[in-house]
# Entry
Amino acid sequence: MNIITRHILTAVLLIAGGIYPLASLATQRIAADPDAVVEVYASMKDPNIISITGGSIESVWGTEDKVSLEANVDTGQAIFRPASFTPFTLFVQSHAGNTYTLVVKPRKNEIGQSIVIDEFASDARSPFDRALKPVSYKNEVKRLLKEIETLPSGKVTTLRGFKARMVNQEIPLWRETRITHALSWTRGGMIIDKYLLTNISDQALVVEEREFASIAESVRAISIRQHQLAPAQSTVFYAFRSAP
# Structure
């Protein structure tokens, strides 16, 4: 049995900067099946990219040193280039915790390949609706909250695998509060809304998650940073919901 050596992706590569133009890539789209072994081919002369539809890659590793691997941390993609014409295996672990097995066959005259794993296909329900049971969903929400709350200053809208949209819209819910829908992150069928809640009354205010269940359609989870607010005090809360 071969010993698997994990090559965790750490190097940052800015695709958007024009180093590897996506327009020059041919696309191979494969179904996301952790139990399957999928054959793909790759260019020997150009960089190849692995991505997940609507999601992001946690790590990629191979069984042998037959490939060079890099990462785009901002986009959650993996970039690789075969080191020889010998076929090799790559294991791709998604941020959702699934591991996919790819048998890569290098080709000399192919252009760079974009290998897309349809884990969060736009024409399907999100993995949270399709596969995750309540306990798994709760754990995934906790993981995402931790990632959101530790975003570095200046990158508060950058959440790996998600598309951010600024909203800045006031939501008239209660007269004692001012609620602003700041922004939304979207990945496949999952939406995370970030709100700013301010106590505009002259008394202390206590809020609970269940009170915000109707703030938007298809809300599945609410998380509030601070439950007790003095007059003029603000806090942040998040709504996790399914896309229409």
